[in-house]
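Our consortium's second objective concerns turning raw sequence data into structural hypotheses that experimental partners can test. To show how far this objective has progressed, the report includes one record in full. It was chosen at random from the queue rather than selected for favorable results. The single chain below, 326 residues long, was entered without modification.
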Amino acid sequence: MTAVLDTTPATAADEPTPGPAPASWPSRAGALAVDVLPGLGVIATMVLLALASPSDGWERWVFTVLGGLTLFAMAVNRLVLPNALGWTLGRALFGIAVLRDGERVGIVRLTARDVAHVLDTLALGIGWLWPLWDKRNRTFADMLTRTEVLRVDAPTSNMRRVVATVLIAAAVLSAAAAGFGYGVVYRYERAVDGARQQIAEQGPRIVEQMLSYGADTMADDFARAQGLATDGYRDQLIGQQEAVQTGPPTTNEYWAVNSAVLTNPPVTPDHAAMLLAMQGQRGNNPDDLKFITATVVVNFDKSSDGQWRVANLTVLKKPLMNQAGQ
């Protein structure tokens, strides 16, 4: 029997169809940057603003929630979309996908792959560069989870617009949060620091002027003291002054020897409290002076004209009087 050779030329249909080509390293790096960097920028902004906010303030919760929602959106993009649609935003933009044996990868394996990227980083970053030498362009994480990043036909026609929208939204959110933090947190903290400094400087002098009066200038001194009190405290102060006027005129002089701005209640731009240790002397004759010591807590309110006034004065340690020389 004579063998007959088939000399018919092979057609394109008879040739094996090549599989998807491995994704290039630049396309993988670009997709990762699109998927991760905008979210990390927003999260970093929120963390810094949350740390700069008062620990018990609602502002910290706002920044924390926004950071958490951003992290959730990143997780959806990295772990849910590849399983549901076959790609993330960044991978769709560059036309690549994470596959295993040509099939989509589940959420659990995608999560393990992202966690395994820690090894790529801990190995001095060599794992991220390993696709440059590996025949299948794999990182260490790909080797551990048996995945590959391949070039695929992704819906890239509209991805540029979608990715641009995401990038703009991330930038706007970060800028808006920073502006909000400056307007609500930073400016408020500066106002609180300014109020604390003003009370530390002015508080003792205000209390000294309110409590001091002379026997010959009592009417003028009392009128000045009333001008240093708020409307709510002025009637109480006038009652105390009227009680003093029932006795013989005498000179009463006070000065602050020690003071401290209190943190409870907390200082606000318009309210503050101070603890003062006072000393003074009472009497008209140098040979008959009585020395006084007292400890008081004074609440201050800032009036509409920007001046600090006494809203309340509480005596913690009643005045003790000693004869001069005793």
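The partners drew two points from this record. The chain is about 50% helix and 20% strand. The chain has two domains: 25-157, 199-323. Both points have been shared with the crystallography group to help prioritize constructs.
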